[in-house]
């Protein structure tokens, strides 16, 4: 039975490459045509493959519906949380997870710093969208027209002397973030707080969330925090692999 299931499932990645006829499927599986036909008929009955008028087979609509349903039911917070805790244990600083929803970027998870000086931030609270590192990552991932339209309608509060001053500067920063694949907030929201962030991506490569490490200057300098960037990015990549359904690789540091 396990061999039959394995063979049936092996047909799906074959058809993902494009339509194939019965002979091609049988050859790829290394089985007789009658066996391949039996497997294809079973998959066809469940809507996972479809037989075209030219007698070739392709992936069925039911498979795409199942994939979409699986994506919609993924909870990025549940997947990310153990990784955030592990990162916090390694570096000791505050770790955040954020998503972009309805024109706001919101914190959806937080692991507190082990140090006495802590950040004022809450799960469910919107971030300072024009300066926060997680916001820059999520907005940089938007298509160009959406980025420009958003930048034009935002206000640009001067939280500190390092805050983003206007739409032109914001778009330039988003372009930089989009190219390098990570972001920082070095005193842009609070003079004494620095932050480094990396994106969490889905199977389609789009950013579904962003995670960050933040710390006050009295605990670590900006340069010391920036030195954690490789670790932050590896953590984000591990979460991305798990969220996308790929085998996660354990960080050995």
TrEMBL record:
TM region positions: none
Keyword Transcription: yes
Keywords from the named record: DNA-binding, Transcription, Transcription regulation
Superkingdom assignment: Bacteria
Coiled coil: none
Domain IclR-ED: 62-245
Domain HTH iclR-type: 2-61
Name of this protein: IclR family transcriptional regulator
């Amino acid at each position: 039975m396990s061999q039959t299931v394995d063979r049936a499932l092996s047909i799906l990645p074959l058809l993902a490459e494009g339509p194939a006829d019965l002979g091609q499927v049988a050859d790829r599986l290394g089985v007789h045509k009658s066996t391949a036909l039996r497997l294809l008929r079973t998959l066809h009955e469940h809507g996972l493959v479809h037989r075209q008028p030219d007698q070739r087979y392709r992936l069925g609509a039911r498979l795409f519906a199942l994939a979409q349903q699986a994506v919609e039911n993924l909870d990025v917070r549940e997947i990310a949380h153990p990784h955030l805790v592990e990162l916090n244990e390694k570096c000791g600083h505050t770790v955040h997870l954020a998503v972009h929803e309805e024109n706001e970027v919101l914190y959806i998870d937080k692991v507190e710093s082990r140090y006495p000086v802590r950040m004022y931030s809450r799960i469910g609270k919107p971030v300072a969208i024009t300066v926060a590192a997680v916001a820059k990552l999520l907005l940089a991932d938007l298509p160009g027209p959406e980025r420009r339209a958003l930048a034009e309608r935002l206000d640009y509060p001067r939280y500190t002397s390092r805050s983003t001053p206007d739409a032109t500067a914001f778009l330039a920063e988003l372009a930089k973030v989009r190219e390098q694949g990570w972001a920082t907030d070095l005193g842009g929201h609070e003079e004494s707080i620095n932050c480094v962030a990396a994106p969490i991506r889905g199977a389609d490569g789009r950013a579904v969330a962003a995670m960050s490490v933040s710390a006050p200057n009295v605990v670590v300098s900006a340069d010391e925090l920036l030195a954690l960037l490789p670790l932050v990015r590896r953590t984000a990549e591990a979460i991305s692999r798990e969220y996308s359904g790929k085998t996660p690789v354990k960080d050995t540091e």
